């Protein structure tokens, strides 16, 4: 798979920000269906205003976004709704190799470039990558749902298992030079390197503060 090597890094610029009342992962619903109507706003960059034409007709929209505060990729995870491990790609857990989230939220109204939405399971300030209409005819396929069909379905809010313990970044507005997702990847990688270095240092008995990461 030579195309998937180093030469195949993409730069994706967020098209907006997702606003919500969820400031930290703990307590945030794990899916829109468990969010009990929690409200939020999708703020789209004014440059894309025309691209929102006719979005009002849809009851639900898909939000695709970047899990900007998740910990490292884990190939196997114990997801919130089960007690056994599964491959992360067979779950909706955020600790993915490419940490992209998707949520089908309810569209309440459009005010210019702001979409008022409900059933939000996304942290405040999350970079938005895309919006698509949710179309029951395209998107709702009755059928098998793997391990979820028999899952105990216990943990409907996040308990922090996929996020390192550090404060949520302060509220950041969207500007013309909005950070590229690429920058977030780089800072996540830098964070991991810094964590590894810190761990090695503490093994040697030195004291180095862990995770001087900002993203
Ligand atoms: C299990 S994931 C599922 C998200 C989405 N509905 C999906 O299926 O891709 C939901 C959890 O991700 C966490 N989360 C939301 N926004 C995040 C962000 N920007 N960075 C890291 N974690 C986030 C929240 O704590 C939430 O409970």
Overview of this protein structure:
It is a single chain. The chain has 215 residues and is α+β, with helices and mostly antiparallel strands. The protein has 2 domains: 161 residues, YaeB-like (Elongation Factor Tu (Ef-tu), domain 3, Beta Barrel); 36 residues. Helices cover 13% and strands 22% of the residues. The chain has a 6-stranded antiparallel barrel. It has a two-stranded antiparallel sheet with strand order 4-5. It is globular and about 45 Å long. The C terminus is likely disordered. The site of S-adenosylmethionine (SAM) has 21 residues, from β6.
Quick tags:
binds S-adenosylmethionine, alpha+beta, 6-stranded antiparallel beta barrel, 215 residues, 2 helices, disordered C terminus
What's the CATH topology label of the largest domain?
A: Elongation Factor Tu (Ef-tu), domain 3
Total of helices: 2
Strands of the widest sheet, in order across it, are 1-2-7-6-3-8
Q: Which ions, cofactors or small ligands are bound in this entry?
A: S-adenosylmethionine
Rounded to an integer, what's the Rg over CA atoms? Answer: 18 Å
The CATH class name of the largest domain reads Mainly Beta
Kindly state the number of beta strands. 8
Shape verdict? globular
Mean pLDDT: 81
The ordered H/E elements are EEEEEEEEHH
Cα-to-Cα separation, first versus last residue = 31 Å
Class derived from helix and strand content? alpha+beta
Q: Summarize the biggest pleated sheet.
A: 6 strands, antiparallel, barrel
Q: CATH superfamily membership of the largest domain, which one? A: YaeB-like
Number of domains: 2
Oligomer class:
single chain
Low-confidence runs: 167-215
CATH architecture of the largest domain: Beta Barrel
| Relative helix content | 10-25%
The amount of beta strand, in percent, is 15-25%
């Amino acid at each position: 798979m030579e195309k998937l090597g180093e030469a195949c890094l993409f730069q994706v610029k967020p098209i907006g920000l997702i606003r919500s009342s969820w400031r930290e992962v703990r307590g945030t619903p794990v899916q829109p269906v468990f969010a009990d109507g929690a409200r939020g706003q999708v703020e789209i960059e004014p440059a894309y205003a025309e691209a929102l034409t006719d979005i009002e007709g849809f009851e639900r929209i898909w939000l695709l976004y970047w899990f900007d505060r998740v910990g490292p990729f884990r190939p196997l995870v114990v997801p919130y709704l089960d007690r056994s491990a599964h491959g992360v790609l067979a779950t909706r857990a955020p600790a993915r190799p490419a940490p992209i989230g998707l949520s089908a939220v309810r569209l309440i109204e459009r005010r210019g470039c702001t979409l008022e939405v409900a059933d939000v399971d996304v942290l405040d300030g999350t970079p938005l990558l895309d919006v698509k209409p949710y179309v029951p005819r395209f998107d709702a396929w009755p059928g098998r749902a793997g391990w979820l069909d028999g899952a105990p379905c216990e943990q409907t809010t996040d308990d922090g298992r996929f996020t390192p313990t550090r404060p949520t970044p302060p509220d950041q507005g969207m500007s013309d030079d909005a950070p590229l997702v690429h920058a977030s990847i780089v800072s996540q990688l830098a964070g991991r390197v810094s964590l590894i270095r810190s761990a090695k240092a503490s093994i040697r008995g030195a004291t180095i503060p862990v995770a001087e990461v900002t993203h």
